């Protein structure tokens, strides 16, 4: 066999293998694998988050804020006349029964999608003590509800459940 023939045969078999390799992921994509399903949820350990602290996590490639509200922050949120809100919701409706101190929201401003400040240590929490979006000046309160600025709606509460007192699964 001449050297050129060998090169041609090698190229053809590489193409054959390549064809199979492309086909397999296409077929296997139809059923989401365990990896994909796992990626679509985020499990968080809340045990280190003290009252008054918050963390930023990632859920489906977007920021999510998890905040341990102080009794004062809960009281402040509950004092507000719900009817006066742009997007009327109580703190109770935005938290889980028995875990009313845990405010879990997407960290995505409902105006144009910037990441608000307020979850990090020392960050500006805005005029209502919750979160502040510096892009165009939206202020969210301690329940993550829009109170001032252009954002049309409250920070979105994702689907989540507590699997223990200190573990939450988002998604
Ligand atoms: S994106 Fe937050 S105020 Fe505009």
TrEMBL record:
Quickly give the catalysed reaction. a quinol + 2 Fe(III)-[cytochrome c](out) = a quinone + 2 Fe(II)-[cytochrome c](out) + 2 H(+)(out)
Q: Where are the transmembrane segments?
A: 6-27
Query: What Pfam families does its record include?
Result: Rieske, UCR_Fe-S_N
Q: How does it sit in the membrane?
A: Single-pass membrane protein
Q: What is the cofactor note? A: Binds 1 [2Fe-2S] cluster per subunit.
Segments forming domain Rieske: 61-169
Which InterPro entries does the entry mention? Rieske_2Fe-2S, Rieske_2Fe-2S_sf, Rieske_Fe-S_prot, Rieske_Fe-S_prot_C, Ubiq_cytC_Rdtase_Fe-S_su_TAT, Ubiquinol_cyt_c_Rdtase_Fe-S-su
Q: Has UniProt tagged this entry with the keyword Mitochondrion?
A: no
Q: Under the GO molecular function aspect, what terms does this record hold?
A: 2 iron, 2 sulfur cluster binding; metal ion binding; quinol-cytochrome-c reductase activity
Q: Might you report a single GO cellular component term?
A: plasma membrane
Name the needed cofactors. [2Fe-2S] cluster
User: What's its EC?
Assistant: 7.1.1.8
Q: What does the record's miscellaneous section state?
A: The Rieske protein is a high potential 2Fe-2S protein.
Family that this chain belongs to: Belongs to the Rieske iron-sulfur protein family.
Q: Which PANTHER family match?
A: CYTOCHROME B-C1 COMPLEX SUBUNIT RIESKE, MITOCHONDRIAL
Q: How does it assemble?
A: The main subunits of complex b-c1 are: cytochrome b, cytochrome c1 and the Rieske protein.
Q: What does this protein do?
A: Component of the ubiquinol-cytochrome c reductase complex (complex III or cytochrome b-c1 complex), which is a respiratory chain that generates an electrochemical potential coupled to ATP synthesis.
Q: What is this protein called?
A: Ubiquinol-cytochrome c reductase iron-sulfur subunit
């Amino acid at each position: 066999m001449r050297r050129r023939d060998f090169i041609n045969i090698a190229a053809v078999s590489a193409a054959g293998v390549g064809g199979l390799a492309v086909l397999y992921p296409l077929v296997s994509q139809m059923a989401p694998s365990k990896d994909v399903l796992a990626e679509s949820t985020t499990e968080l350990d809340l045990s280190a988050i003290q009252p008054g602290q918050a963390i930023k996590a990632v859920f489906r490639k977007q920021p999510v804020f998890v905040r341990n509200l102080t009794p004062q922050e809960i009281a402040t949120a509950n004092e507000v006349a719900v009817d006066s809100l742009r997007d009327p919701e109580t703190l109770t409706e935005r938290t889980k029964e028995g875990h009313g101190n845990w405010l879990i929201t997407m960290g995505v401003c409902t105006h144009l999608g910037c990441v608000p400040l307020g979850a990090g240590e020392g960050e500006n929490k805005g005029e209502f003590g919750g979160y502040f979006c510096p892009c165009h000046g939206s202020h969210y309160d301690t329940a993550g509800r829009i109170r001032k600025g252009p954002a049309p709606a409250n920070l979105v509460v994702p689907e989540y459940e507590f699997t223990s007192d200190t573990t939450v699964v988002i998604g």
